[in-house]
Design brief:
Helix content: 40-55%
Number of strands: 8
Oligomer: single chain
Strand order of the largest sheet: 1-2-4-3-5-6-7-8
Order of helices and strands: EEEHEHEHEHHHHHEEHH
Number of domains: 1
Structural class: alpha/beta
Radius of gyration: 18 Å
CATH class: Alpha Beta
Distance between the termini: 38 Å
Strand content: 15-25%
CATH topology: Rossmann fold
Shape: globular
CATH superfamily: Alpha/Beta hydrolase fold, catalytic domain
């Protein structure tokens, strides 16, 4: 078993509130920033972070509304531009003079596509590893292409992805998801993960609010971006890890990524949605290998 690496917890002042973060590894090493998904918080990264720390400083922060970060209310507070502002505050705090390597999962990946395709952050992100979370704009164009050319294969792909996204529609209903999280789903989430996803997680003190607040991410962004997608091109090399046993995201939308990502590596892996929990060592090894390949090709910033 890999020995535990000391973790430092600290606060970062974002533009709208305080973000809680953990850090592993030497403070002067190149930085990897980890962005968690829904309905998780930064604790989901602990095992992956310990496998990455050493040659890197690894930082995981609680996205607004989750964990121990500030918890705003209302749709506008969870729009992609506010998440981008939080991420910018994080990298300004932990790596103001060097670009960071960005790694994200699930909704962390969805929002991180906004970071990796943001022209204002060109040069601030050295590489991006995305797992189980598409860019909403890219997904919007993918849906449009299937509707405009409804071959049997396209109709099948679109139907399967829409069925896998059932929870997205439910989250649009007022109060329903919040009620579920605060009554039974919060305390039952470890059971759900064990029996439906086959992974073990520890109970989280903030699970109720992690789930209830996080639905605003979907309400504030999903249909707005799908219905009016923007052309968003990656500003850094990207690796997309595609778990072929993912219960929520199919492999097909990421097949169109060469349209948007000039430097792309795409790998299908034999795993489920929460691969970073079921196989943290394997996940970390793929991240490390990609970062090393990118770093070997790119001279450090001045």
């Amino acid at each position: 078993m890999k020995p535990s690496i000391p973790c430092t917890t600290f606060d970062i002042q974002g533009p709208d509130g305080t973000l809680r973060a953990d850090s592993w590894g030497p403070p002067d090493a190149p930085v990897i920033v980890l962005v968690h998904g829904y309905p998780d918080n930064r604790s989901e990264w602990r095992d992956v972070a310990e496998h990455l720390a050493g040659p890197y400083r690894v930082v995981a922060y609680d996205v607004r509304g989750a964990g121990e970060s500030f918890k705003p209310t209302g749709r506008a507070a969870y729009k992609l531009d506010r998440l981008l502002a939080d991420f910018t505050a994080v990298i300004d705090a932990v790596s103001p003079n060097q670009p960071v390597h960005l790694v994200a999962h699930d909704w962390g990946s969805v929002q991180s596509w906004e970071f990796a395709t943001e022209p204002a952050l060109k040069g601030r992100i050295a590489s991006y590893v995305s797992c189980s979370g598409p860019c909403l704009d890219h997904l919007g164009f993918w849906i449009r292409s299937r509707l405009l050319k409804p071959t049997p294969a396209h109709v099948y792909q679109l139907t399967v992805q829409m069925l896998k996204s059932w929870y997205v529609y439910m989250f649009q209903l007022p109060w329903l998801a919040e009620l579920q999280w605060h009554t039974f789903l919060g305390r039952g989430w470890p059971w759900v993960m064990r029996h439906l996803e086959g992974v073990e997680i520890h109970p989280r003190a903030t699970q109720n609010t992690d789930g209830a607040n996080g639905v605003w991410l979907y309400r504030a962004n999903v249909f707005q971006r799908l219905l009016a997608p923007r052309e968003r091109h990656a500003q850094a090399p990207v690796m997309v890890l595609v778990p072929i046993k993912d219960n929520y995201v199919t492999r097909w939308p990421s097949q169109d990524l060469p349209l948007w990502v000039p430097q792309l590596e795409r790998e299908e892996i034999d795993a489920g949605h929460w691969v970073l929990i079921s196989d943290p060592r394997g996940f970390a090894n793929k991240v490390r290998s990609f970062i090393e390949r990118v770093s070997a090709q790119t001279p450090p910033a001045a």
